[in-house]
Write a structure and sequence with these properties.
Largest sheet: none
Number of strands: 0
Distance between the termini: 101 Å
Shape: rod-shaped
Length: about 90
C-alpha cells in the first residue's frame, strides 16, 4: 500500500490546501503562543522545584526608607570629627 493515502488523510490534505493565508497565520500565531506558554510554565515549575527545599527566605525591601534622609556636608564633617575623636580616645586606652 505504499504511495496510497486514506480517505481521511486526503480530506485533511484538501482542507490544508484550501486554507487561506489569514487562517494559516492565525493558526501559526496560536502555535507560537502555546509553545511560549509551555516554555514559561516549564521554567516557572523548574524554578519553584529548585527553591522548594530552601529554608532561607530573605526579606527584600523594594522601596526606600522614607524616615531617613541623606547627610549633608556639614553633618558628614561632624560625624567624621566625632569618629576621629572616638578613635583617638580608644587608642589612648590601649
Amino acid at each position: 500500500m505504499s504511495g496510497l493515502i486514506t480517505h481521511s488523510e486526503l480530506k485533511n490534505l484538501e482542507k490544508h490546501q484550501n486554507m487561506d493565508q489569514k487562517e494559516f497565520l492565525a493558526r501559526k500565531e496560536q502555535f507560537v503562543k502555546n509553545k511560549e506558554d509551555k516554555i514559561q510554565k516549564a521554567q516557572f515549575e523548574k524554578h519553584h522545584k529548585d527553591v522548594e527545599d530552601c529554608t532561607f527566605a530573605p526579606e527584600i525591601y523594594t522601596t526606600k526608607n522614607e524616615g531617613t534622609k541623606p547627610r549633608d556636608l556639614q553633618k558628614f564633617l561632624e560625624d567624621q570629627d566625632r569618629y576621629n575623636e572616638y578613635k583617638s580616645i580608644n587608642s589612648q586606652k590601649l
